[in-house]
Structure formats: structure tokens, C-alpha cells
Amino acid sequence: MPSPRRKVALASSQPPAVTEPYKPTPAEKAALTRYVARGAQRPPARIRVAKGKAGISTGPDHPDLGTGTVNLLNALGTASLPFMNGLLSQITNVASQGREPDEAGINFVLSVVNGIEPRDEVEAMLAVQMAAVHLATMTFARRLAHVENLPQQEGAERAFNKLARTFTTQIEALKRYRSDGKQTVRVERVTVEAGGQAVVGAVNIPSRGGGAPDKI
Fold this sequence. Notes:
By secondary structure, the chain is mainly alpha-helical. The chain has a domain of 146 residues. Helices cover 55% and strands 7% of the residues. It has seven helices and four strands, in the order ααββαααααββ. Helix 4 crosses helix 5 and helix 6 packs antiparallel against helix 7.
């Protein structure tokens, strides 16, 4: 008759129960479909930081160097290699807190720029500035949450408010640039009573003082 200790050993050697694979809900399936479609429309653009005997080097994070470079060019809205290299250098300086390039920080900024989908170099530069302002805003938001005295609170609060307003201004600037300065006026509803007539354009109404008519 086996000992109790032997029984425990035999029980623990049994294979684990096989569990059924997870079945996504309809909402999760729809989210997965949107995710795949979004990735197909705009491929990700990433940078890889490598450390070797010659030092630290950066390059496209892609199995094929040419394809990875094209993905970066498209993400930055340009076909110019000098522009791409210069802007990537600036992104590296902004996104890295230490002396060495921060791969995660660089790719975060790139993901922000890629999400904005710049159409040219101007929009790419503005997108990078927006990412930089966002990083600075979050830095002062963290400082504001850990202040120890009133002067620290006031300083962090002022910087946070200025940066938040700057980010909003940048969004408006991007919208204006993309609209080419054109303004669209949309009429939601026009009601004309029986016997009346709709008028389109400026309407002159005599002023109360008898001078020049008022224009509406």
C-alpha cells in the first residue's frame, strides 16, 4: 500500500486540465477588425536603438531596411531623406531624458506623428511640436500632483496651463493649415413663410439715424 506522501506525488504528476480557448465577444471582434483595418491603412513606423562595439546606433525597426525607411518617410509626410534624418534627430533629443536614445520615447513620439498623418513637412514639424508639448504638459502635470509647497504648486500650475493652451493652439493651427484658409458656411435650416421670399447675400437695412444703411 503506497504511503500518503507517494499518493501526493502521483496526484501532482497528473497533466493540467485543458481549457477552451477564449471566444471574443461581438464587440471585441468588431474592435479587432477596426484595429487590423487601421494598421493596413497606415503601417507602423518605428525606430530601433542598437548597442554595439562601435557605440549606439539607430535605424528603422523593420526586417527590410528599405521598407522600414519608406514607412518612416510616409509617417513624416516627406520624400526627403535629409528632412527625415534631421527630424528624427530632433525627435530623439526631445524624447530621450538621458544621454542615450530612449527607444520607447522615440517610438511614442513617432506614433503620435503617424497618428496625426502629416501630409507634408510643415505638418510633420507641427506634429512633432505637438508631441513635445504633450510630453512637457504631462511632466508638469506629474509635478503638480507631487508639490510640497505653495510656490511649487503655483509654478507647476502656470507651466501646465500655458502648455495646455499651447497644445490647443497647435491643433487649431493644424486645422487652419489643412483647410488652406478656406471657411465653409453651412446653413442648417431656412424657413420661408407663405408669401415670403428667401434672400441670399448681404441685406441693407436703413439705419435709425438716417445715415448709411446697416449691412447684415
